[in-house]
Amino acid sequence: MAFHIIGDADTVLGYRFAGVNGDVVETTEEARAAFKAAIANRSKGVLLITEAVEDMLTEEVTAHRLSSKPPYLAVMQDIWGPRGKRRSLQDLIYEAVGIRIVQDD
């Protein structure tokens, strides 16, 4: 299965040492162009993006996830660690279907 990463220069370089190709992006326009090119190439099995790229491309990322088409998307931390804005799975389910899976105490 082929992997591809989109993120900052340091994170992409780290993954290149592991044999993963990727695109270095610094602006929203660069991120959008790299994302469109990556999802157009269906031979990529998994597309890795950093949280910063996800923040830049919220609408595009959501639309791709809803399409359920490859490449499959995984959002990961960059070298600076978590951004702290990730929502829990329970919150995402509640937003999508309006049902709480586990009752908060």
Descriptive terms for the model:
single chain, 105 residues, alpha/beta, Rossmann fold, four-stranded parallel sheet, 45% helix
Structural class: alpha/beta
Strand order of the largest sheet: 2-1-3-4
Number of helices: 5
Amino- and carboxy-terminal Cα gap: 42 Å
Oligomer state equals single chain
Strand proportion, as a percent range, falls in 15-25%
Task: Give me the Rg, rounded.
Answer: 15 Å
For the secondary structure, the number of strands is 4
What integer is the average pLDDT?
A: 85
CATH topology: Rossmann fold
* CATH C-level label: Alpha Beta
Which range best describes the helical content: under 10%, 10-25%, 25-40%, 40-55%, 55-70% or over 70%? 40-55%
Largest sheet: 4 strands, parallel
CATH architecture: 3-Layer(aba) Sandwich
Element-by-element helix/strand order:
EHEHEHHEH
Q: Unreliable runs, pLDDT <50, ≥5 residues?
A: none
* Whole-number tally of structural domains: 1
Spell out the CATH superfamily.
ATPase, V1 complex, subunit F
Describe the structure.
The protein is an alpha/beta fold and 105 residues long. The chain has a single domain, classed as Rossmann fold (3-Layer(aba) Sandwich). 45% of the residues lie in helices and 21% in strands. It contains 5 helices and 4 strands. A 4-stranded parallel sheet has the order 2-1-3-4, with helices on both faces. It is globular, with a radius of gyration of 15 Å. The model has no long low-confidence stretch (mean pLDDT 85).
How does the SSE layout of this entry go?
Blueprint: E1 2-7, H1 9-17, E2 21-24, H2 28-40, E3 44-50, H3 51-56, H4 58-67, E4 72-76, H5 89-97
Parallel strand pairs: 1-2, 1-3, 3-4
